[in-house]
Amino acid sequence: MDPVATLFFQSPWIECLNQAQRQRTLESLFARSYTAGEVICRKGDISNVWIGIAEGLIRLGIESKSGKQLSLATGIPPGSWFGEGSLLKKEQRKYNVVA
Predict the structure, then answer these.
(1) In 3-state terms, what secondary structure has residue 48?
(2) What whole-number distance in Å separates Cα of residue 52 and Cα of residue 72?
C-alpha cells in the first residue's frame, strides 16, 4: 500500500466517515514530496487542502516583527494532519510550514 493510503487508513478520524465518504476522500488524496528545509506553505496562503504527513517531520512557525522565524511546533511526525481548521473555516494559513 502506498504511504498516502496507509496514512489515511491509520487515521483515527476515518471511523467518523461512512463507506461512501471514505471512498470519496481516498480518491481525492494525492502525494507531494518536499526536501528538508523546503517551504510547504506560508502564513497567509489560501487553504485549499488538508495536509497529512506520510513520511518525515515538519515545523510550524511564524515570523516575528524583526523577521526572525519562531517555531511554534517542531518535529510534527508522520501520521499527523494539519490545516483542517483553516480549510473548514475558509481562512488563510496561520503558520509557515517547513519540511
Answers:
(1) coil
(2) 18
* Closest of 36, 28, 21 to residue 5, by C-alpha: 28
**The predicted structure's pLDDT at residue 44:** 96
List, for residues 22-36, the tens digit of each pLDDT value. 999 999 999 999 999
Strands 69-76 and 51-52, bridge-based pairing: unpaired
**Pair (87, 46) in one structural domain:** yes
Same domain (yes/no): 18, 64: no
State the cell numbers at 80: 499527523
Statement to judge: residues 88 and 40 lie in one domain: yes
> Do residues 58 and 39 both lie within one domain?
yes
Q: Do 24 and 44 belong to one domain?
A: no
67 vs 45, residue with greater confidence = 45
The rounded Cα 64 to chain-centroid distance in angstroms is 22
Residue 57, pLDDT > 90, answer yes
Nearest CA to 11 out of 22, 2, 20 is that of 22
